[in-house]
């Protein structure tokens, strides 16, 4: 799924109306598995001047980048974090790790050749799904609209549950970003 969808799902599922720290942790946890990708892409393209085509066709698949993705996309590590959070009874850390695990749960069945090592460090196995959220050759024309509907469903729930106009506006921006990014991936691929 696109990152804005993950943020909306994380906020809706793990955030708590009236508890800004918990909701912020949920949003940040939903972002965490994609953060390294954004940082490495940004540094490569804008900091080092590497063409985007090289970044997404070569660097993304390199052993070095995949090693980073294995860490921040590990069900094992995030699951251990959630168990620790539950043991410590920390609502903020539960929201953070829970949203990250939701991110992985939605990503796992929706990545084809771009899949990650979701069970690192126990295994380097990669599940290459026949279904993709971005690749039209792997049913993105179906998955994309479903992800968009889920995103707008989360937006509606957030608008009903939260009082903060700033958070409602943030959620609306995420939904707009999801709408734009879904269309862009279907157009490109």
Automatic annotation (TrEMBL):
Membrane-crossing segments per the record: 35-56, 68-87, 93-110, 142-159, 165-188
The alphabetical list of record keywords is: Membrane, Transmembrane, Transmembrane helix
Q: What is this protein called?
A: Cobalamin biosynthesis protein CobQ
Organism equals: Kangsaoukella pontilimi
């Amino acid at each position: 799924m696109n990152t804005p969808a993950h943020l909306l799902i994380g906020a809706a599922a793990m955030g708590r109306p009236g508890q800004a720290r918990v909701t912020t942790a949920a949003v940040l946890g939903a972002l965490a598995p994609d953060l390294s990708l954004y940082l490495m892409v940004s540094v490569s393209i804008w900091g080092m001047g590497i063409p985007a085509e090289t970044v997404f066709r070569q660097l993304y698949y390199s052993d070095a980048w995949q090693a980073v993705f294995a860490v921040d996309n590990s069900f094992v590590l995030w699951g251990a974090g959630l168990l620790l959070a539950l043991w410590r009874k920390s609502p903020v850390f539960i929201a953070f790790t829970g949203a990250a695990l939701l991110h992985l749960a939605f990503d796992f069945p929706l990545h084809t050749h771009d899949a990650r090592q979701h069970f690192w460090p126990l295994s380097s196995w990669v599940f290459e799904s026949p279904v993709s959220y971005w690749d039209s050759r792997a049913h993105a024309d179906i998955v994309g609209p479903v992800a968009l509907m889920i995103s707008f469903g989360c937006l509606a729930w957030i608008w009903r549950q939260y009082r903060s106009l700033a958070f409602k506006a943030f959620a609306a921006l995420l939904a707009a970003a999801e709408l734009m990014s879904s269309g862009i991936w279907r157009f490109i691929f």
